[in-house]
Description:
The chain is α+β, with helices and mostly antiparallel strands. Helix content is 20%, strand content 41%. Strands 3-9-8-5-6 form a 5-stranded mixed sheet, with no helix packed on it. A 4-stranded antiparallel sheet has the order 1-2-4-7, covered by helices on one side. The chain is elongated and about 50 Å long.
Amino acid sequence: xxxxxxxxxxxxxxxxxxxxxxxxxxxxxxxxxxxxxxxxxxxxxxxxxxxxxxxxxxxxxxxxxxxxxxxxxxxxxxxxxxxxxxxxxxxxxxxxxxxxxxxxxxxxxxxxxxxxxxxxxxxxxxxxxxxxxxxxxxxxxxxxxxxxxxxxxxxxxxxxxxxxxxxxxxxxxxxxxxxxxxxxxxxx
Length: 188
């Protein structure tokens, strides 16, 4: 019987991720990265540009996700305090990229990696070489932030309270450019 429970839980997570992906594409479709020279698009630890390739690590609680992302896309200068979450509350790590190098087939090849560092300095989770995006990019999306990887974390009641740090990078494999990113969230 536990197997069925796990299958249902994984299917529920897959459906949530699929729905989030669709919502992300719609939400970010109007955010044109080519306008990133504006003063409100300054380089942050969580959103940077290296050699023309941009990455953005957006961390939010699942509960606040749509509102937080809308605010961040519309008013990038509003990015600031890390989200506060309770144990067993879902935290979303959303990886976006813009302006990847494209071949004539318009295929973008982007890889992500990240590690989660607990308040005591130990590494809780580390993922390397994760395919973030490997697909054709529409001409209209070339200079827009495109959602790549979505990862969901759920701190347990036994996990340490305090600031959890995310150290990540997004790599444009065709160009060989890596964008280092940092973000965090606080478990209360």
